[in-house]
TrEMBL record:
<feature type="domain" description="ABC transporter">
    <location>
        <begin position="8"/>
        <end position="238"/>
    </location>
</feature>
<dbReference type="InterPro" id="IPR003593">
    <property type="entry name" value="AAA+_ATPase"/>
</dbReference>
<dbReference type="Pfam" id="PF00005">
    <property type="entry name" value="ABC_tran"/>
</dbReference>
<dbReference type="InterPro" id="IPR027417">
    <property type="entry name" value="P-loop_NTPase"/>
</dbReference>
<protein>
    <submittedName>
        <fullName>ABC transporter ATP-binding protein</fullName>
    </submittedName>
</protein>
<dbReference type="InterPro" id="IPR017871">
    <property type="entry name" value="ABC_transporter-like_CS"/>
</dbReference>
<dbReference type="GO" id="GO:0005524">
    <property type="term" value="F:ATP binding"/>
</dbReference>
<keyword id="KW-0547">Nucleotide-binding</keyword>
<dbReference type="InterPro" id="IPR003439">
    <property type="entry name" value="ABC_transporter-like_ATP-bd"/>
</dbReference>
<keyword id="KW-0067">ATP-binding</keyword>
<keyword id="KW-0813">Transport</keyword>
<comment type="similarity">
    <text>Belongs to the ABC transporter superfamily.</text>
</comment>
Amino acid sequence: MNTAQPLLRIDRLCRQRAGRIAVQDLCLDVDRGEVLGLLGVNGAGKSTTLSMIAGAMRPDSGTIHLNGEDFLECPELGQRLIGWLPERAPLWQELTVLEHLQAHGRLHGLNGAALRQATEAMLERLELGNLARRLAGVLSQGQRQRLGLACALLHRPALLILDEPANALDPVQVASLRQLIREEAARGTAVILSTHLLAEVTAVCGRVAILHEGQLRHEGMVDASDVQALERRFFDIAMNGRSQAA
Ligand SMILES: Nc1ncnc2c1ncn2[C@@H]1O[C@H](COP(=O)(O)OP(=O)(O)OP(=O)(O)O)[C@@H](O)[C@H]1O
């Protein structure tokens, strides 16, 4: 690992979707062991940003460096370094929970005892053990979300990208998710967490970035004891943006 560089550096990232600007001139760094919250109203550009960082969507311009290396030139870096839970976890209906984990592990180069250990660890960590033989097609929304998270974590990525991970989780699972994010950060994983829930940001994020209409409108440290300060900042950006647009 090249620890002199931030784990992730994105510089002047731009992307249009359906002829409209979705992300514009976005610059962000994320360090190892840091949890960055990504906030913004619907359509602000969060998922587009995360898709580009995860390597699933190519930017129109700008650069992405992972561990100091040019990710757009070497997309295979993502296989090793990134774990991504998209907004809707992409699951194969006809595969079981265990088969999903095995398939993901193989895609990331795990096999034999290492694959067995990794899948068992994830079944336990995401409380999926009793669902191991169940088909993904019959899982509840929250169970699907946990399976998506297990797949994202299986290969121990250096950068964990979570797009609305608390969606459909019950309060007990939300608490477990927070704990899991803290544990990942403590072991040095960089985490980007996109959410609509401001309390989620104050609970686990050290830093927050607020997007509006594809642009970075605020970036700063999070005061965990002051959710109202974040709320004021968020609404100010959202409402000003709306009145400007009107
Ligand atoms: N599949 C698509 N085709 C065309 N335009 C899209 C598509 N998905 C998103 N967009 C547009 O890209 C812009 C950014 O959307 P994006 O999904 O990145 O925002 P978001 O912040 O993740 O929103 P949300 O909170 O609703 O998930 C919006 O203007 C949106 O309309």
